[in-house]
Amino acid sequence: MGTLRAETMGRGRRTRCGPPFSALPALRPAQAALLRDWLRGHAAERRWQTLLDQAGAERLELADELLTLLLACGALQTRERFVHAQWRVERVVWADLAALQQALGLATRQEQSDQRDALAARLKTLAQQVPWLAPAARHCLDARVSDATRQARLDLLLALARWHEEQCFGLQRDFAQFARGHTKAISAGEWDWLAQHVALQELGIARFAPLLWLGGTLTLGTARGRIDVAAAGLCGLPAALLAAPVQVQAPQGYWLIENRASFERQALAAAPGTCVVWLPGQPPTSWRQAMAWLIAAAPAPARISCDPDPAGVAIALTAGALWDAAGLPWQPHAMEAAAWRQAPQLPLTAHDRDWLARLLARTDLPAPLRALCLALEQGGHKAEQEAWL
Hints:
Elements: E1 5-10, E2 13-17, H1 29-38, E3 45-47, H2 48-55, H3 60-72, E4 76-83, E5 86-94, H4 97-103, H5 109-129, H6 134-142, H7 147-165, E6 170-171, H8 172-180, H9 188-197, E7 205-206, E8 211-216, E9 219-222, E10 225-228, H10 229-232, E11 234-238, E12 247-249, E13 253-257, H11 260-268, E14 274-278, H12 285-297, E15 302-305, H13 310-326, E16 330-332, H14 337-340, E17 345-347, H15 350-360, H16 367-379, E18 381-383
Helix pairs in contact: 5-6, 5-7, 6-7, 12-13, 13-15, 15-16
Protein name: DUF2399 domain-containing protein
Organism: Comamonas faecalis
């Protein structure tokens, strides 16, 4: 700490400063917290009263203490006025605002500008790469919101893109868990914003009670009466219905189909004894619980048909795990390369290739699915089962 110097600026006014600034002294946590509050803005000069207001009544003594400390180390200069026989601080001028911000772990004006530019570039890239997210991305760019809000919205849009690519399905709380690790992590305002710019229902993000869609042979006995799925053709039952004391007449086998159009087509044409079930992408907990109860109450082997792509393999494994847990056999069906070689195909993405590598590294990958993964890896393309199933 050096000697303070005062320079008279005119009648009743002066500037006080310390030695040339080099570094902050050791600060107590409370002092560092207050200085961090003062340095969040980018003005090189601040009114002292404004800084006192930021400190609040409970930190006024701390503010005076911090001012003296910062002045003594040269971190700031004070502009003062002689009033009622004493010098009063009117304004504070930071010696090196960027250095002070960096010392306190705050972004400088240039760093914030660079971050803002990088954020805008990411939003523009997302709009180009994922056209169905373009309206939301453009709104993020145009809206007058804080950088933190813009970043949070971008993160949600990126999570939506992953959710779609991985063919997930579930309630809003399932997406919140997927995106941010907690079922209540997305605020009501964020849900409103998403709903204004993205067709959430079409992405498999539902607001209401989940349904289990069935077709073919299955008969349920409930307290309110008998449900014959075959008589209805297709039947959407609340997942919560599939629990005791409902009684089930077991089919000869289950056929799980991921693609919705393929499910409806095959459900209406199902052979007697086959219960056809729509497998909604990466199935949510409610679906898995309902199916686990169903196969426990009415055990039968399963065939599982998913898109021949990495997501489809992962979905088949997730569903098949229910049969593994019940000690029942299951097998992939109509997913082998011969079934889709003549169907329209899309090139694998970098995300697909990374996913394939993880799948092929699994020691428990069933032989038919391993063969499919190798065919996808070698051919470099994937397909959608609606074209042939």
